[in-house]
Amino acid sequence: MNSYILTIFAPxxxxxxxxxxxxxxxGIAVTxxxxxxxxxxxxxxxxxxxxxxxxxxxxxxxxxxxxxxxKQMDNSxxxxxxxxxxxxxxxxxxxxxxxxERVDERFTSKMAFQTMIDSGLGKKQRRNKALVDEISATLxxxxxxxxx
Length: 148
Known about the structure:
Blueprint: E1 15-20, E2 25-31, E3 38-45, H1 49-59, E4 62-69, H2 81-94, E5 100-104, H3 108-118, H4 123-126, H5 129-147
Parallel strand pairs: 1-4, 4-5
Antiparallel strand pairs: 1-2, 2-3
Helix pairs in contact: 3-5
């Protein structure tokens, strides 16, 4: 009797990594290697963000970094865009091999807060701004993935 081994090769893919940039804290979310599921990874002090990203990308394959694009309701840039632009310059200098895309992040903080309510988190947990930032990064990543 002949036996055959069927091997399915998945394409070599890396993760997508999303950033909800803040002047104090930054939420980070990633996908799995097949880029199917977006999950919150952590929240990092923004002062340590570049070193965190360099360390993470040295251990994990990241195909793209998605950074939230904060806009006002009239579609103009929000005040925090100035800080994000400075960060993007540093990111390009420190990790030039990974492309960066921007995604409109309007309403992600409100949606993150609503997600926390819907999942039954108590008031004390909902005041955890780090968790809100991480969930916001996850929503940015999900939005990007849905647009593909």
